[in-house]
Amino acid sequence: MVRFFAENLIVLSLVAIVAFFGFASERFFSITTLSTLLNQLPALTVVSIGMTLVLISGAIDLSVGSVLALSAGVIGAGVVLFGLPVPIAALMGIVAGALAGLANGSLGAYLRLPIFIVTLGMLEVARGLAYLVTDSQTVYMGAKIQAFALPIDGLGMSASFMTALLLVIAFEFLLKSTVFGRQIVAVGSNESAAAVSGIDPRHVRCTVLIISGALAGLGGLMSSAYLGSADPNAGIGLELSAIAAAVIGGTSLMGGRGSVMGAFVGVLIVSVLQIGLAQIGITEPTKRVTTGAVIILAVILDRWRKT
Amino acid sequence: MTRPEPGQAPPRIAARRIGKSFATPVLRDVDLEIPAGCIHGLVGENGAGKSTLAKIIVGLERADTGSLALDGRPYRPITAAESRNAGVALCAQELSLVDDLSIAENILLYTSTSAFKRIRRRSAHEKAARALVAIGLDAGPEVRVSRLSLAEKQLVEIARALATNPRLLVLDEPTSALTAPQSDRLHAILRAEARRGVTVIYISHRLRDVLTICDRVSVLRDGQVRLTESAGALREETLIREMAGADADFDAGRRSIEGTRPVHLRVGKLRSAALPHPISFDCRRGEILGLAGLAGSGRTELLNAILCLDRRTGGSVTIRTASGATEIRNPRHAIRCGIGYVAEDRARDGIFRDRDLAFNVTIAGLGRVADRTGRVVRARETAAVSKLTADLGVTSTGIDQSIRELSGGNQQRLMLARWLHCKSRLLLLDEPTRGVDVAAKLAIHEELVRLRDSGVAVVAVSLRPDPGVVEPEARRRVSPRHVAPGGHPGGGVQ
Fold it and tell me: Domain span at residue B192?
């Protein structure tokens, strides 16, 4: 019994939170809630996938929020200024994200600069670039891009949301069942032993940071599809939500442990809390206090679960 | 050299039945009495418990059992500050200076008794300058520690300890980075301190130093004091014999080496920053080659240089592979060329402690259990790991058990299993049976002999090659001057 609770702690917490808001607000179980949730989820989900991999490898990526905005900016500029087709512009946004990740990885993994500082610098650089490419304006793109975020007939889910779900499954598979996934865990668990086992920790960390950058780039596509415009102010503070989601999902900030599936449940918990608290009339300051407390509680429960 | 035996006065430090366990027992019923004004040497292999005993004496660790007495009074330090106030100072193996502070500030930090006392710069500098002159270090008190060399830092650490006017000074590997003249100077200082009645516990791998400077010497092995003798009556060979202990007897079935077996590994004039003197040797197929050397003699550094874990500064390492002789380029390449490496420090360079047995065994050879797309096939992994753990007699609840729950002996079997899984044709083993139980030791020995008979080349490093395993002809020492008992330490020399 205790074992069952311990092993399914986060899923049970999610159920408990949903049940709580169901009782506390009659409007909670509604189409509006669901659609708000489904619209918010994809960007945070894909960014959290990347963050989870990075954290498991023993690194951190603080630049994801800004990289998301940079990608959105590149997409906006591509579509509006250069009149590129949306798919091409979207690809450019993702590539821009991957390049930011490559810069993080080259400096942080290969040149062995502190990864915290490198990605903190990238947080500023990418944000600045996002302002530059959009001329600090929100670039309106309209229906051309919104299709990605609108529900597909007959499925009821947007392409954006399905992409996010598929990526959760794909990256959970990558992490748990492939050679590369094992290498990520090994590097985060014991870097020196990994090197002795023939794994190049620099290579693994750099690759993981590129993935994180590319996923943040995809997040930029998702958030601009949802808004119908490229907002250079998008994703401010997103890195913290992503770290929170990963940690709630059982990922260790020390590296070597975590799961993408867990991070997804973490994303759900964070998002449901946001929406639910707003619905029962909690003010923004109190919402922040509550969300922060939940993150800390998650870490305490995680420690209890381990011992 | 010998000082008078303690008369009526109680010993400066007396340890009675000190015991300490972490995962496994580190110290068992250690009794030690050292009179005032005595320099007492403490020797033993890595992991024998020397550093732990030192830490208990200065309050950085607490003993599980037993008691300490300082000058006849019960002494139970809980913090380093407490032991310092009682007149006990430690120079630890890992330097504990604050890099970003000056020498004077470091000495002040260590010697001051109150955190909120105003710092008087001039008196602090004078005090530091005196301490530096005494130790023979030519540096101003205002110099930042980060600008000092390793040897200079070591001297500052010792000067800092002396500045507290200790009754008992514990030195853990004090000369590991010092040049010969610096060591001599330190030894002269220690003798002067001893004449003033200060007691010194001197821990070192440099047996020659220990025998020169110390009045008495104790040998620790497997957490127990095996021998305490006055230094004049001891020889290096005696110490080494006591440090190594009698190994579990095991008959490998001696075989003579035919010259026809091909050379599998050829090390030619290999050098690295930690190996200043070039080393050359060959290892043939079906041969177990023993490399004898004390800790610090360069034995681990030699293996690291072979594998390119440390940067080489010269020489070559070639290995015979299917496609002819190949020069080892990097650790990954070494594994691809069929080299397996069991590191000395299992916790640091070996195990992934939060992971299960299967993860730990297959991590270096995932290609063997994965399909072409890079997916790890569970069934293949389970089959491979189950067979290896059964062959090596690993006791566990299953291959999904976390490795940290296993005993040291079982963990070590898994380290060997990792390379059996890779079908390595050359094994480099650094102290492969250290700190493991007798059953595991025998299992590992048996496996090594079986591997040898199947044509695998094995290079095993240890203080003293196990007589049973290493063939008499192969029990030669590599470059005796450097990888042999009492040899020069590898690194850190100016």
Answer: 13-244
Residues B390 and B440 in one domain: yes
Which residues in chain A have Cβ-Cβ distances shorter than 8 Å to B332? 198-200
Is residue B210 located within the same domain as residue B270? no
Characterize B43-55 residue by residue with b for buried, 16 or more Cβ atoms within 10 angstroms of its Cβ, and e for exposed.
Answer: bbbbbbbbbbbbb
pLDDT at A2 over 90: no
Contact at 8 Å (CB) between A57 and A211?
Answer: no
Alpha carbons B29 and B457: distance in angstroms, whole number? 41
User: Residue A257 to residues A253, A264, A266, B246: CA-CA distances in angstroms?
Assistant: 8, 15, 15, 42
Structure confidence by residue, pLDDT tens digits, B375-431: 999 999 999 999 999 999 888 888 999 998 888 888 999 999 999 999 999 999 988
- Quick check: A260 and A172 in contact, CB under 8 A? yes
The CATH number covering residue B314 comes to 3.40.50.300
Q: What is the mean pLDDT of residues B29-55?
A: 89
Residues B132 and B281 in one domain: no
Q: How many CB pairs under 8 A join A and B?
A: 73
Instruction: Specify if A8 maps to a domain.
Output: no
Length of chain B: 494
In a domain, A98, yes or no: yes
On whether the CB atoms of residues B341 and A196 are closer than 8 A, the answer is yes
B310/B432 same-domain check: yes
B359 touches chain A (CB under 8 A): yes
Which residues in chain A have their CB less than 8 angstroms from residue B343's CB? 193, 196
- Segment A178-182 mean pLDDT: 96
User: What pLDDT shows up at residue A1?
Assistant: 62
Phi, psi angles (nearest 5°) of residue B69: -135, 135
| CATH classification at residue A142 | 1.10.3470
Minimum-distance CB partner of A189 among B341, B355, B374: B355
Highest mean pLDDT among A296-300, B213-217, B264-268, B397-401: B213-217
B378 and B436, same domain (yes or no): yes
Domain for residue A219, yes or no? yes
Q: Which residues of chain A have a CB within 8 Å of the CB of B349?
A: 192-193, 196
Torsion of Cα atoms, B406 then B408 then B412 then B418, to 10°:
30
**Is B480 a member of any domain?**
no
Separation of first and last alpha carbons in chain A: 16
B380 touches chain A (CB under 8 A): no
Answer yes or no: do B370 and A192 touch at CB < 8 A: no
What pLDDT sits at residue B171? 93
- Do B161 and B299 belong to one domain? no
Contact A179 B366 (CB under 8 A): yes
User: Mutate which of B353, B366, B419 to test chain A, going by most A C-beta atoms within 10 A?
Assistant: B366
Nearest CA in chain B to A182: B363
Q: Structurally, how many domains does chain A consist of?
A: 1
Domain match, B329 and B228 both: no
Task: Tell me which chain B residue has its CA closest to the CA of residue A175.
Answer: B375
Chain A environment of B374 (Cβ under 8 Å) = 178-180
- The answer to whether residues B152 and B301 belong to one domain is no
C-alpha to C-alpha distance for B217 and A224, rounded to whole angstroms? 75
Of A199, A200, A256, the CB nearest to B354: A256
Per-residue pLDDT at B483: 37
In Å, how far is B375's CA from the nearest CA of chain A?
4
Question: What residues of chain B lie within 8 A of the CB of A196, using their CB?
Answer: 307, 309, 331, 341, 343, 349-350
